[in-house]
Write a structure and sequence with these properties.
Blueprint (H helix, E strand, L loop, with lengths): L14 H4 L3 E2 L64 E5 L5 E6 L7 E7 L13 H11 L9 H7 L8 E5 L4 E7 L4 H16 L5 H17 L3 H13 L14 H5 L3 H11 L5 E7 L3 H12 L29 E8 L6 E8 L8 H26 L4 E11 L3 E10 L4 H17 L4 H20 L6 H13 L7 H10 L6 H11 L4 E8 L7 H9 L29 E6 L6 E5 L4 E6 L7 E7 L12 H9 L10 H8 L7 E4 L4 E7 L4 H13 L5 H15 L6 H12 L12 H5 L3 H11 L6 E6 L3 H10 L27 E6 L6 E9 L6 H25 L7 E5 L8 E9 L4 H18 L3 H18 L3 H8 L7 H4 L4 H6 L3 H12 L4 E7 L7
Parallel strand pairs: 3-7, 8-12, 15-19, 20-24
Antiparallel strand pairs: 1-5, 2-3, 4-6, 4-7, 5-6, 9-11, 9-12, 10-11, 13-14, 14-15, 16-18, 16-19, 17-18, 21-23, 21-24, 22-23
Helix pairs in contact: 2-5, 3-27, 4-9, 10-11, 10-15, 12-14, 17-20, 19-24, 25-26, 25-27, 26-31
């Protein structure tokens, strides 16, 4: 039963080193910020046509005989006493294929299909390394019903965006094919299952397809290379020494891939792609019996000659010679990478064992999760209080059915890694020798309880795609799925057994194992060697309880008032949906939209100030420091620890971001906590504190991270792209260590204190709440603030510049010498006056991306995933761009520029074909229709609408602007924006001479 909510399953810092999954070729257009794709998918009534009715009608056929009876024990729950989630219907075909189907209307009209093959990179023989992933690619190249290169256009014509709605993932233990089919009427569903059955059962594996696809896989492998990949590989080899996982990265081995033959890949397919090794999960807006019927129709006659292959032995962690229960430290490694920051990971390894997924087993997992949360909270407190590390984290992980391991990861602040290691081990030693206090334990229990309650409240709007993913991943780890209510019931039912002593015992078990292994990454040679690290890990450590969080209480009733509650001076319909515009006496405006689309959830955004425009160039480093430390520096007499205490047992958020045009606080909360959430935001503006500790920590983090950007072309793009396309404006740059050194805690306050007082405030509250509750919360929080100071009008003028077109900027990275990247960018507009043209550019950008994809990936194997990004800011701030980029070989940089020039010249002269447009506009239309069912989409579209009526006027054309066009319109846009000489940026290895 996979149960721990994502908010509580802290991502293991070691996870990137595992490189556990490779994604098949999805290319998607990025937006800054995304106007569509990033919006949550829920069930809010939209003002545009939402497509088919709530449940797709399906013509009658014979009842599927493979369906298990509703009261039977489903195949997933055999041997388990976890209550069956009866919303799923389970079945088994005569050929052994298992499946589960479920009706789900989130988002409306969509059906999500997952086909899982129980084979990944761990199932490969030595001479097959990379075949599982290569085979995944080949299934998309050609199959029984799809000719060469037809898969991507076919899915696009059905409305599915390749890489977003249709994709595949290969991990060490499974390969999963994914399709989220929009507007899934009976004809579309029938066609989708037919095509998928041909892909899975009868891919065309010939020498031509293999030789075509191998360079694409190698391009993907190349783009993942560099110091980070070396560390990942060597860390796997150390931590999983003696096991298949040590040398079975899903991306594969270059020599093996280059030597792959069609016959050998076909043999792998025949060995593992069998109905007995396959699970299909389908969740969506359709009758589950009809979905079962489709599975039976298209997969029921699937037969593969020969018997089922036995799964290979993945191996267990084994203690090497010289270790003992008293000193289990085994293999260690010190990796020197000059451009990577210091990090140290050690793992306590135990064999992975199959389990009976019972209630008692899950109670144990919950206690383990509580134990880890306790330790991680203490480790964070030590870091905040001046520990020798920037961050530290403990995470238990069952890794690829190969090891049950407890990973400890941290980043030393200096070369004195031994002091940081002692700090971390001292906190852990205390947790394994002394029970937690009742107060500490109750705090963690309250955090878990509120998360599980939220899961119950939001269960009705969980997307079908997420439900299908959860089921196939449960199959992978050999566990069940459970409803949100079951999870809450199990957690509350075990409460009497969750005692400090019980948590101590679970904590001790987490740090017991047959072998301890460790990896230290350092930029500086000579700091340590494997023997030093082994000795340090084996050295006795004294328990250090100083990081324990002292018992104390912080209550909202004790916090200072912000002022006398304000009054509402205006409340009237906005004219969009049932959204209301409210104005308070002090000038604060708000948009309120009570709706039940996302039960139990209330989304809040607060916009104020002028954003990046408010900073002088010399103040640029304080932008990123503000995003990292402004909230943590406190308010109303509270520091970060006090704020955490206030959040115990509540649902709060406190995200802060700096946009080009404004600053934004955002949170997901619930009605019961709405008033306090608004108080927190308003108090940060009215009563800010300036605790130096978060600022010092943010400065240290910025310095340690900076050098990592130069290790790859992608890193340099992340670091420098935004400033380069704005003529070097430092406000859009990642601050260098030299820039960070010029900052200080006092400087931080001098810059940010006046900015918190400036500019009109707009509050957006969308979600499951009562209007009266929100009005009273607004009056006592933002309504109580004093009048705001005006922003200098000169600050609001469009500012970001663009570099001279026709020039090529060349940057040099220090990563692998076979890696490069190329960018070509054209300036476009900004603002709402011509927003329809900006939306149409999105269509043009997708056409350009499809052509680049064909040219650079499919034909040349030069780049794995070329991308195109269209950025037309809704605020009139300038700096809009249409930008194409690709990571590739250094020798292919000029070919990319030539391909881009040829593509845009042809589009400006001839325009795209009608079929090209259909492949783009239908997926865009579907994406928007799905996005409009979520609160997040409307919050993004309507921000600023309380003072700018033009934002309302442009709403009505949104769907057509993004999805309706003509070849002539695209030709005109290409001639207007893409015919001029673009900005070019190349990133190549140091010492490379770039050909003209």
């Amino acid at each position: 039963m996979h149960f721990v909510p994502s908010g509580l399953r802290r991502l293991a810092l070691f996870a990137p080193l595992l490189a556990a999954a490779c994604a098949t070729p999805g290319v998607q257009t990025e937006q800054t910020p995304p106007p569509v794709a990033s919006a949550p998918e829920s069930a809010v009534p939209a003002t545009v046509d939402a497509g088919p009715p709530a449940t797709v009608p399906v013509e009658p056929r014979a009842f599927p005989t493979s369906l298990q009876a509703p009261d039977a024990t489903p195949w997933l729950y055999e041997g388990s006493n976890i209550p069956v989630d009866r919303d799923w219907r389970f079945g088994v075909l005569d050929n052994g294929l298992r499946y589960a189907t479920r009706e789900n209307g989130v988002p409306p009209g969509q059906v999500s299909i997952r086909i899982r093959i129980d084979a990944g990179s761990l199932h490969e023989n030595d001479d097959e390394r990379g075949f599982a992933h290569l085979l995944e690619h080949l299934l998309f190249r050609q199959s029984r019903y799809l000719g060469v290169g037809e898969a991507i256009p076919t899915w696009q014509r059905l409305g599915a965006t390749f890489g977003n709605d249709t994709n595949a993932i290969t991990s060490p233990t499974q390969t999963v094919y994914q399709l989220d089919l929009p507007e899934a009427d009976p004809a579309k569903l029938d066609e989708a299952f037919r095509l998928l059955s041909g892909m899975i059962q009868e891919p065309i594996i010939n020498e031509t397809n293999v030789r075509t696809e191998v360079p694409i896989v190698l391009a993907e492998k190349r783009e993942r290379g560099g110091p980070g990949e070396r560390v990942a590989r060597e860390s796997r080899e150390t931590l999983f020494n003696g096991q298949r996982l040590a040398n079975r990265n899903p991306i594969g081995d270059e020599a093996t891939l280059m030597g792959a033959s069609a016959e050998a890949v076909e043999a792998f397919h025949e060995r593992w792609y069998r109905p007995q090794e396959t699970v299909i999960a389908v969740a969506g807006d359709a009758d589950p019996v009809a979905l079962a019927r489709l599975i039976e129709t298209y997969f029921g006659d699937w037969q593969v000659a020969g018997g089922v292959s036995q799964e290979p032995d993945f191996g267990d962690p084994a203690a090497p010679e010289g270790t003992s229960p008293d000193n289990p430290v085994g293999e260690t490694a010190v990796l020197v990478e000059p451009d990577l920051p210091r990090s140290l990971t050690f793992a306590i390894m135990r064999p992975w064992e199959p389990v009976q997924d019972t209630i008692r087993y899950n109670e144990g997992l919950l206690m383990d999760a509580l134990a880890q949360s306790l330790i991680n909270r203490r480790l964070e407190a030590r870091a905040r209080g001046g520990g020798d590390y920037l961050y530290a984290q403990v995470q238990q992980e069952d890794v690829s059915r190969s090891a049950d391991a407890t990973f400890v990861s941290f980043a030393p602040l200096t070369e004195d890694w031994q002091a940081a290691l002692s700090d971390v081990r001292g906190v852990i030693a205390d947790a394994t020798t002394t029970p937690p206090t009742e107060e500490e334990l109750e705090r963690e229990i309250a955090e878990f309880d509120v998360a599980f309650v939220a899961g119950v409240e939001e269960a009705d709007v969980e997307p079908g795609s997420q439900l299908a993913d959860t089921l196939v991943n449960a199959v992978d780890i050999r566990e069940t799925v459970a409803s949100a209510q079951t999870i809450l019931d199990v957690f509350r039912g075990m409460r009497e057994r969750v005692t400090p002593q019980a948590i101590l015992e679970r904590t001790q078990a987490l740090f017991e194992g047959e072998v301890v292994r460790g990896v230290y990454v350092t930029p500086q040679g000579g700091e340590a060697d494997a023997q030093n690290l082994r000795m340090a890990l084996a050295e006795p450590i004294e328990a250090d309880g100083s990081a324990r969080i002292a018992a104390s209480t912080v209550d909202f009733d004790e916090l200072p008032q912000l002022g006398a509650p304000g009054e509402v001076v205006s409340a009237q319909p906005l004219g969009v949906l049932e959204i209301e515009r409210v104005e308070l006496a002090n000038g604060v405006t708000a948009l309120l939209w009570p709706n039940e689309a996302e039960p139990g959830r209330v989304a809040v955004q607060v916009h104020f100030g002028a954003g990046i425009r408010a900073f002088d160039e010399e103040e640029a480093p304080y932008i990123s420091l503000g995003e990292a430390a402004l909230v943590s520096s406190g308010f109303a007499g509270l520091d970060q620890e006090d704020i955490d205490r206030l959040a115990t047992g509540r649902k709060f958020g406190f995200d802060f971001s700096v946009g080009v045009a404004n600053f934004t606080f955002s949170a997901d909360t619930r009605e019961a906590d709405l008033a306090d959430q608004l108080y927190l935001f308003a108090a940060k503006l009215a009563l800010p504190e300036w605790d130096e500790r978060p600022i010092k920590r943010a400065r240290a983090g910025a310095r340690l991270a900076y050098d990592t950007y130069v290790t790859s072309p992608g890193g340099l793009l992340n670091r420098d792209l935004e400033t380069l396309i704005r003529d070097g404006d430092p406000r859009f740059a990642t601050p260098s260590p030299e820039m960070i050194e010029q900052t200080s805690a006092q400087g931080f306050r001098d810059v940010w204190e006046p900015l918190l007082k400036q500019g009109e405030i707009e509050v957006l509250i969308f979600g499951d709440f009562e209007r009266a509750t929100a009005i009273e919360a607004l009056k006592s929080s933002f309504g109580a603030l004093p009048e705001r100071q005006p922003i200098d009008p000169a600050t609001l003028a469009p500012q970001p510049g663009t570099p001279p077109a026709g020039e090529r900027e060349v940057l040099y990275h220090r990563g692998d010498n076979n890696q490069a990247a190329a960018v070509v960018a054209w300036p476009v507009g900004s603002g709402l006056a011509n927003i329809a043209e900006g939306r149409q550019l999105e269509i043009l950008g997708q056409v350009v991306m499809n052509r680049l994809f064909d040219e650079m990936r499919e034909r040349a194997g030069a780049s794995y995933a070329p991308q195109v990004r269209v950025d037309w800011p809704m605020d009139d701030v300038g700096g809009g761009t249409i930008l194409a980029l690709a990571q590739l070989r250094p020798g292919d940089v000029t070919a990319f520029y030539a391909a881009a020039d040829e593509i845009v010249a042809d589009l400006a002269t001839n325009g795209p074909t009608a079929d090209e447009l259909a492949r783009v506009t239908e997926p865009l239309r579907q994406t928007i229709l799905r996005a409009t069912t979520g609160n997040g989409f409307w919050m993004w579209q309507l921000r600023g609408a309380t003072r700018d009526p033009q934002r309302l006027r442009v709403i009505s054309g949104l769907l057509n602007d993004y999805s309706q066009t003509t070849p002539q319109r695209m030709q005109a846009l290409a001639a207007k924006y893409l015919a001029s000489e673009p900005i070019e940026i190349a990133i190549v290895p140091e010492g490379t001479e770039l050909a003209e």
